Amino acid sequence: LARKYLSQARKQLGKKEAFYIALEKALHNYLKAKLLVETSDISKERIAEILQNRNVDEATINDFKTVLDNCDYARYTPSTDVMMQQEYDKAKEIITKIDKQL
User: Fold this and answer.
1) What pLDDT score was predicted for residue 76?
2) Could you tell me if 2 and 99 are in contact, meaning their C-beta atoms sit under 8 angstroms apart?
3) Structural domain spans, the chain
4) 34-57: per-residue pLDDT in tens?
5) What is the CA radius of gyration of the chain?
6) Cα–Cα distances in Å, from 58 out to 12, 32, 50, 68?
7) b/e per residue, 20-48, with b = 16+ CB within 10 A?
8) N or C: which end of the chain has fewer CB within 10 A?
9) Which is nearest to 23 in space by CA: 6, 2, 39?
10) Which CATH fold would you assign to the domain 2-101?
């Protein structure tokens, strides 16, 4: 399931801005499909609250918020291909964890 949502981000690896936009969109699209909520219009705190209500563990929720924060920051700061790959891997891990908990 993670691969399905992250495929566009994977194609953008190496293109910093396009990658982080695609990664953020992938996380939102995953939640939208899994939780049946529109996430692009709500805050990270509200997303965390929704995940808590669905009994997703706190560490996974914090990791999810961190990746979203990193997507915001990375567009405006220097980053390397290694950093992008690490963010991609982290997002894949988070989607897998959330999927197992829902």
Assistant:
1) 83
2) yes
3) 2-101
4) 888 877 677 888 889 999 999 999
5) 13
6) 30, 20, 12, 15
7) bbbbbebbbbbbeebbeeebeeeeeeebb
8) C
9) 6
10) Four Helix Bundle (Hemerythrin (Met), subunit A) (1.20.120)
